[in-house]
Amino acid sequence: LDIALAHGLAIAVMVSATGAISGGHLNPAVTFGLLVGGQINLRRSAAYWVAQLAGAVVAAGLLVVLGGGKGVEIVAAGTPDLAADVSRVRGILIEAVLTFFLVFVVYGTAVDARAPKIGGLAIGLTVALDILAGGPLTGGAMNPARAFGPAFASMHWNHQLGYWIGPLLGGALAGLIYGRFLIREEK
């Protein structure tokens, strides 16, 4: 519960704080979902992806330094990994479902002009709920940058490809459904 709430509250605060600057793009899968849904162009998406991955690497590197002699071990322990009884395919599917919910909520609370102005809070709560549901199975990453930064800093690369495929699939599906069929432009 504490891990889920810590992540969810941090995302709620940071999405709210960066919403006016970048639309709160902290996750390559969310950016990809918005690209698929026609809400952002490829050039801006690529710039966000570079910033998201660089930010994840810098943050994880800072944690290694702050952790002193155990820094790499601490960061490795915080790197998402599959539970022993979760196959790679099942892990990808779980991450895809979790990320679908996240990107769908992003659309429904922050992107759609009809959305209530609670985007950051709803997005953070979705992250917390997804971690409560999927954390014991996959770590509940829902974010390629969240998996990549700590993996890079600790060289703990277990199942890294799944933390890209699942979230990107889930984000794309949510972007396709909401961005192409459910969103309404203000007239």
Task: Summarize the structure in words.
The protein has 187 residues and is mainly alpha-helical. Helices cover 74% and strands 0% of the residues. It is built from eight helices and no strands. α2 runs antiparallel to α3 (42-66), α2 crosses α5 (88-111) and α3 packs across α4 (71-77). The chain is globular, with a radius of gyration of 16 Å. The N and C termini lie far apart (43 Å).
From the N-terminal CA to the C-terminal CA, the straight-line distance is: 43 Å
Fraction of helical residues: over 70%
N-to-C order of helices and strands: HHHHHHHH
Q: Helical segment tally?
A: 8
Based on the structure, what is the oligomeric state of the protein chains? single chain
What is the 3D form? globular
Taking the sheet with the most strands, its summary is: none
| Number of E strands | 0
Summing up helix and strand content along with how strands pair, one would put the structural category as mainly alpha
Give the amount of beta strand, in percent: under 5%
Task: Briefly characterize the structure.
Helix content is 74%, strand content 0%. It has 187 residues and is mostly helical.
Characteristic key phrases:
74% helix; mainly alpha; 187 residues
Give the secondary structure arrangement, pairings included.
Elements: H1 2-22, H2 28-36, H3 42-66, H4 71-77, H5 88-111, H6 119-138, H7 144-154, H8 162-182
Helix pairs in contact: 1-6, 2-3, 2-5, 2-8, 3-4, 3-7, 4-7, 5-6, 5-8
